[in-house]
Design a protein that fits this description.
By secondary structure, this protein is of the alpha+beta class. The protein contains 17 helices and 13 strands.
């Protein structure tokens, strides 16, 4: 059976410090006195911290890519408006005054973790501990009784917590996203994760704190065009629009974002548990649940601090309700006790009445009823007993006065005794009682009857008083119950009224100051305390800002006079500098143009030189000493060799071409000399020899018009080309054919290259 598991995502934009302001909170250093008392420092070793310089640089570069163009346009606009003091100067300065966004992603809770530990971890690796609220929670046993680490249990705990670490990091990666119309849209394009820290040591609530770089576009209007912003609300709206194509409010966008991330995070943890513990793919371990459906007192999507504050408020309210219920129960118990006392009093009154009734019937010999056969009241019974007592007293008196009728009196006395007691006037030995003993006993009985009458009346009065008291206590209990209920209702109403007043005051203050909580999130009773806390922080910031501005204003007033004096000087200097700057810019542009032209010419010249080298010596290589370490010299006819030559100075290339051309000249002269030797006549030419040439018409020879120059003639006579021309003119047909064959063979050899056979 799968385990029901909740996931919550909390995005916060509290201040300009961002992740840096909460860094000590997430590091869980045991030497610091943390306000969070739920930290298990033995498990801090399983946390993961992604705070490297590479991650910081990556977020900085991301911000540069998204806001640099906007900052440049803004600064240029301010310069054009003669407000250079309003320039940002850089993306870092632009973002320094903005509120930074942080986020918390939480998977599961203490109950979920305990269930997973029971499912995947040995029972010997953990123990059950009781929390301050009376509930229990499973904690890994990482040390024995002597404080020494238990390596096996540490391995089990690391394996278990690494599943949460990987799932939390994977769920918040910047490459998580959607494919829409052949285009990839990542969350990191709008909400870019920076530094992060996973916490697995807070009483079983595994979560990740991470820094969020935000980017979105404002909607724009008639007065101002849409522009980039780091507002969390606009980033969420822009992300939703990019994915769905719909424009919605910030409230709808954040609900959509949380729903997407929460479901994906649970899938990440499900996959990690399957891979780590080799669970079959068909077996579902976790089942996503929103606790608000079953328990309206618990909301998802809240931060840990918000959840604790909400629970504390509910606990306080519950304690008041419990006290009122206890008072009501006490009132009901008092009412029940009064009923019991009333019944006891009625029973005592009935018992007293029965005793009085028995005495009456025994003394008078008549039933205790009136003429209508109704039971006599206590008063009537007392009067009857009193009358019988007086009658017996008169009888005794008459017996004392008239001894003559003593026997009758004794008889009457004994008869009265018998009537009173229902027994014969005899003692324990069955001997007749003396008249004195009979009188004494009758007197005693009469006195007892009077006492019984008095006691009955007293009991009746006590019963009436007990009855009245019970009724009074019942009324008091009912009054107390009603009072307790009224107090409870009044308390609830006061709480509700106070919250409404606070809610109205907060809403009014937000509207008056044009503030938005959590990027446009509406103020409700659930987030009222967080909004009030945020407003208090805002007031404090405003107060500090006002004080700072007052100080700055005083300083500005004191320095304004100096600046005014210096302003004219700066204007004059600025005019001169502008003139000089204009001249320098013109000169600079000309130099840049000349430099570019020269660079192009050098590059072109280098290219021509390299082409000459390639054409005349394609196997030429740059000296190894001129190359980089580990680089191998290549022939100039290859691409690598050409690049190696291109990197060399122009002077080197010129010298190389000179050497190649000099060598080529020597080869050419040698070749020409060889051809010339072939064409030279074997015998000296006589005066009668007739010169013939296929290429020269003797009739075309004319006298030169130029003056004779001996040095020039000598140079021309030694010139290989002139020698070749002269040899051609003097060569025979056979020599020309030999020369042609020699030239053809040489050309073919150069064309085919060396023969390795």
């Amino acid at each position: 059976m799968s385990i029901k598991c909740t996931v919550t995502t909390d995005l916060q934009t509290k201040d300009t410090n961002g992740y840096s302001g909460m860094q000590k909170h997430v590091e869980h250093d045991s030497s610091i006195n943390h306000s969070n008392k739920d930290i298990v420092f033995d498990e801090t070793q399983f946390n993961i911290y992604g705070e490297s310089q590479k991650i910081r640089d990556d977020l900085t570069l991301w911000n540069q890519e998204h806001f640099q163009e906007y900052v440049d346009e803004h600064d240029q606009h301010q310069r054009e408006k003669n407000h250079p003091e309003r320039q940002y100067g850089s993306v870092k300065n632009y973002l320094s005054g903005k509120k930074k966004t942080t986020a918390i992603l939480t998977i599961g809770n203490m109950e979920v973790q305990s269930e997973l530990m029971k499912k995947f971890c040995p029972a010997s690796s953990y123990s059950e501990e009781q929390l301050p609220d009376g509930s229990t929670h499973l904690v890994f046993k990482l040390k024995d009784n002597n404080g020494k680490p238990i390596s096996d249990n540490i391995t089990v705990a690391k394996k278990f917590y690494d599943c949460f670490n990987r799932a939390l990091i994977a769920a918040t990666n910047n490459n998580v996203g959607w494919n829409r119309n052949g285009k990839r849209i990542n969350i990191g394009d709008y909400l870019h994760r920076g530094r992060y820290a996973t916490n697995n040591d807070e009483m079983g609530i595994s979560h990740i704190h991470f820094e969020v770089g935000t980017f979105g576009m404002t909607r724009g209007g008639k007065k101002r065009q849409a522009h980039p912003t780091n507002s969390l609300n606009q980033a969420l709206v822009s992300l939703h629009q990019a994915v769905t194509g719909e424009t919605v409010s910030g409230r709808v966008a954040i609900k959509w974002y949380r729903a997407s991330i929460d479901n994906y995070a649970l899938k990440c943890l499900e996959n990690e548990l399957h891979k780590t513990y080799n669970v079959p793919s068909k077996t579902q371990i976790l089942n996503f649940e929103r606790k608000t459906k079953d328990d309206p007192t618990v909301q998802t999507g809240l931060s840990m601090e918000q959840l604790k504050a909400q629970k504390a408020e509910l606990a306080d309210h519950q304690s008041k309700i419990t006290q009122a219920q206890a008072d009501q129960k006490k009132a009901e118990d008092d009412k029940q006790q009064a009923e019991t006392n009333k019944k006891a009093a009625e029973a005592m009154a009935q018992q007293a009445y029965n005793a009085l009734k028995n005495d009456y019937e025994r003394v008078t010999g008549h039933k205790a009823v009136d003429s209508n056969n109704n039971p006599l009241s206590v008063q009537k019974l007392g009067e009857g007993l009193k009358s019988a007592s007086e009658s017996m007293r008169e009888t005794v008196k008459q017996a004392n006065e008239d001894k003559a009728i003593a026997d009758q009196a004794v008889k009457a006395l004994r008869a009265s005794y018998k009537a009173l007691t229902g027994k014969e006037a005899v003692d324990d030995h069955n001997q007749p009682l003396s008249p004195l003993e009979c009188s004494r006993r009758i007197k005693k009985l009469t006195k007892k009857a009077q006492e019984d009458q008095t006691q009955a009346v007293s009991n009746q009065q006590a019963a009436e008083e007990a009855k009245q008291k019970a009724l009074q206590e019942q009324q008091n209990a009912e009054t107390a119950r009603r009072t307790a209920q009224q107090q409870l209702d009044q308390l609830n109403q006061e709480i509700k009224t106070t919250k409404q007043k606070r809610l109205q005051a907060v809403t009014r203050e937000l509207a008056d100051n044009q503030l938005n909580y959590n990027n446009g999130e509406a103020v409700t009773e659930d987030n009222l305390e967080e909004v009030e806390k945020a407003i208090d922080n805002w007031r404090q910031e405003q107060r500090h800002q006002w004080q700072s501005e007052q100080t700055k204003n005083t300083q500005l007033v004191s320095t304004n006079q100096n600046l005014t004096t210096q302003n004219q000087q700066l204007k004059d200097e600025n005019t001169n500098l502008q003139t000089t700057n204009s001249d320098l810019q013109s000169t600079n542009r000309k130099l840049i143009t000349d430099n570019q032209t020269l660079t192009n010419e050098i590059t072109e010249y280098k290219t021509q030189l390299i082409d000459t080298i390639t054409e005349n010596e394609p196997t030429h290589k740059v000296e190894q000493s001129r190359l980089q370490s580990g680089e191998v010299a290549e022939e100039v006819q290859t691409y690598t060799g050409r690049q190696q030559h291109q990197r060399q100075p122009l002077k080197y290339l010129i010298n190389t071409v000179k050497k190649i051309l000099q060598h080529l000249k020597q080869d050419t002269e040698t070749f020409i000399n060889d051809v010339t030797r072939i064409l030279q006549p074997q015998k000296p030419i006589t005066a009668n020899t007739k010169l013939e040439s296929h290429y020269l018409d003797p009739d075309s020879i004319r006298p030169t018009k130029h003056p004779f120059n001996a040095q020039e003639e000598k140079r021309l006579m030694n010139n290989p080309a002139m020698k070749l021309k002269k040899a051609i003119l003097q060569a025979t047909q056979e020599q020309l054919q030999q020369a042609q064959q020699h030239i053809g063979h040489s050309i073919q050899k150069d064309t085919n290259g060396p023969d390795f056979n």
